[in-house]
Design a protein that fits this description.
The protein is α+β, with helices and mostly antiparallel strands and 657 residues long. 39% of the residues lie in helices and 25% in strands. Strands 2-1-5-4-3 form a five-stranded antiparallel beta sheet, sandwiched between helices. The chain has a five-stranded antiparallel beta sheet with strand order 7-6-10-9-8. The N and C termini lie far apart (150 Å).
């Protein structure tokens, strides 16, 4: 077959027209003299319309025109340009980035005719590069490229993680340089790095945790992900560092919160248990104390039997103090809040502390000259101080120094009063510190401690919206710090206080005052019997009921006979407070005394005014009789004031007197 001949110019024309590259020819004055098919497609302009246009003025972005014109002059002078980038503006206004190879061309006579430029649209690649650079620069993960002996590139986050400011500080160096000698698992960093490097090359990628170290020595826990890749014909590793510092801090905070929740739940459960035990124990102490006081009246005050009875009486007093600690721990003893100066409270207690400290312990007390007013219960805060002092004493069996300091601090921008108790004793290991506020936990020998001292401190301080912390070093000593909010006002606490602090006579039956019939309501037989004997010994008649419903029936049978209702708070069938309310609803103004093994704060709230007082068990018999006579007398006075003048109206009967 015969094929037609073609010239080199024909072939060149075909190449130019079928090329995927933009090819254009420009005269020295920048006018277009050649425009291939790819140029037509890119710029959206046919060759016929493009020929003769000033390329620089028509298609080059305005800010780049001087640069492009200068480059064309250099090419015309014989200096070709390779991989030159510019931004071209298409006929639709879109900007595209092109990379060019440019060279001048001449005619057969050797005369320079213009330049020939071949270009490729790299806009997508440039966009991808910008996006990659944005991710690279702004990533919070440390990104690195490793090759050969060290790092060949890194992003700003990697520098920040290591406390570096310049890439030159990291480029060419191995990350091992920025690692402690040993990893957290105890393995030497250099040995672990070799093992991980071998695994990574074998598997192609590997993820692990690594402890880096900043230039200032600060540890930086990281999660490392390494992948082996081929780049430009060479083996490279792409490395990502995730800083675990915040994650670990969050995990530690969450663990601490879970621990606090567990501790709170434990305290709450034990608090309910302690409150129940205290309630029952107070009932037993009430019966025992009443019986002892009655027995003392029937024996020779100077005899041996009286001495033994008084010893038993003192023992009940100490037992009642222990119960108060249980109630303070369970927060079921209502506090009597007032504004008090923490420094003054400590100074007042100093002399008492010195009596409980042995001679080989030196006590130093320092209080700030500034006022440290706090809103709290004096008795409870005194107990907090005493518990801390006694705890410090027990930690210094061989003697030492005990320092108590009261001052003012600012925590989270809020002013607070601080109490610091520091000893030079044996200190505690971390395992003991973790449980030191647990109720009934003690390191003392069996029988030497209750394990309630610091638990009571924790419960009381928390109830006062305060915080308590402890620092201890084995062999050096312990420091306990208590912080309480400074009082902003001196408003009195509200609510009905549980108390047995009325002035009382010294004996059961030696006090004058009105007497009458007492309706005694108590479900515990032993307590009811002891109280009946005390009341009868004090000159009262007694009607007994085992619960509120029975008492209500007895009252309705002869309301005029009853001068006083003495009732326990918690009882089956009908509680004491509910009995009070039903009596009031029935029109009774008979005075009422309530008794409680603990505060029963919810039960005794919002009671009618005929509740004269709430007595805290156990109470002295004389205190009960004084309260009973006081309540009856107060009701009689009120009835006299309410009665109209003359014989027309008589005050309501308050019972026999």
């Amino acid at each position: 077959m015969h094929w037609p001949n073609f010239s080199e110019s024909d072939l060149a024309e075909a190449v130019l027209e079928t090329s995927g590259s933009v090819v254009l020819g420009l005269r020295p004055d920048h006018t277009i003299c050649y425009w291939n098919r790819a140029a037509e497609q890119l710029y959206g302009l046919s060759a016929a319309d493009a020929i003769g246009l000033d390329y620089v003025e028509r298609f080059i972005a305005p800010e780049q025109r001087p640069l492009i014109a200068a480059d064309i002059r250099k090419v015309l002078a014989g200096e070709p340009t390779w991989a030159f980038e510019d931004d071209s503006v298409l006929t639709n206004g879109e900007r595209r980035t092109l990379v060019w190879n440019v060279k001048r061309f001449a005619n057969g006579a050797g005369e320079i005719c213009g330049i020939l430029a071949s270009g490729w649209d790299i806009t997508s690649r440039k966009d991808a590069e910008r996006a990659f650079r944005l991710v690279w620069d702004q990533s919070t993960e440390g990104l690195l490229i490793g090759g050969g002996p060290g790092i060949v590139d890194c992003n700003p986050a990697a520098l920040r993680m290591l406390g570096l400011t310049d890439r030159a500080q990291l480029i060419g160096r191995h990350p091992l340089v920025f690692s402690p000698e040993f990893q957290p698992d105890g393995e030497r960093s250099s040995d672990k790095a070799k093992r991980i490097d071998a695994l990574t090359r074998e598997l192609g990628e590997y993820r692990f945790e690594w402890m880096h170290q900043r230039t200032d020595g600060t540890p930086v826990p990281t999660e490392v992900h390494v992948r082996v890749v081929a780049l430009d014909g060479q083996t490279r590793t792409v490395i990502a560092w995730l800083d675990l510092s915040e994650r670990q801090a969050t995990a530690e905070r969450e663990a601490a919160l879970r621990g606090q929740l567990l501790h709170s739940q434990k305290l709450d459960a034990l608090g309910h248990l302690a409150g129940g035990i205290a309630h029952d124990f107070n009932n037993l102490l009430t019966a025992l104390r009443g019986s002892l006081e009655l027995a003392l009246l029937d024996v020779d005050a100077n005899g041996a039997v009286a001495a033994e009875l008084r010893l038993a009486q003192e023992t009940t007093t100490r037992a009642a103090a222990l119960v108060r600690q249980l109630l303070a721990f369970s927060r079921q003893r209502e506090a009597t809040y007032q504004t008090l100066d923490l420094g003054a409270l400590v100074r007042d207690a100093e002399s008492m502390w010195r009596r409980v400290l042995p001679s080989n312990i030196t006590l130093h007390v320092h209080t700030t000259e500034l006022a440290t007013p706090v809103w709290g219960d004096p008795g409870q805060l005194e107990q907090v101080c005493l518990n801390l002092v006694v705890n410090a004493r027990d930690a210094m069996a061989a003697g030492g120094e005990l320092r108590v300091h009261v001052g003012r601090v600012a925590t989270d921008g809020l002013p607070r009063a601080s109490l610091e108790v520091a000893d030079s004793g044996t200190g505690m290991p971390a395992s003991v510190m973790a449980r030191v506020f647990d109720p009934f936990f003690t390191t003392k020998p069996l029988g030497a401690g209750t394990g309630l001292g610091l638990a009571v401190v924790y419960g009381t301080v928390t109830a006062h919206d305060g915080t308590v912390s402890i620092d201890s070093t084995v062999g050096e000593g312990t420091v306990v710090r208590v912080e309480l909010p400074l009082a902003l006002s001196s408003d009195a606490a509200t609510g009905l206080a549980v108390t047995a602090e009325l002035p009382v006579p010294t004996a059961v039956s030696d006090a004058p005052g009105p007497r009458g019939t007492v309706l005694l309501v108590e479900d515990e037989p032993a307590v009811r019997g002891a109280l009946r004997r005390v009341l009868m010994r004090g000159g009262f008649e007694v009607i007994e009921a085992t619960h509120g419903a029975e008492a209500l029936t007895l009252w309705h049978a002869d309301p005029s006979r009853i001068a006083l209702v003495l009732s326990d708070v918690r009882m089956p069938v009908l509680s004491g407070p509910d009995l009070v309310r039903q009596l009031r609803a029935a029109g009774s103004r008979t005075p009422v005394l309530l008794m409680s093994g603990f505060a029963d704060e919810e039960l005794v709230r919002d009671l009618p005014p005929n509740v004269a007082q709430v007595l805290a068990k156990p109470f002295p018999s004389a205190a009960l009789l004084a309260a009973a006579r006081h309540a009856i007398a107060a009701r009689a006075d009120a009835a006299s004031r309410e009665a109209p003048a003359g014989p027309k109206g008589l005050p309501e009967s308050g019972g026999r007197g």
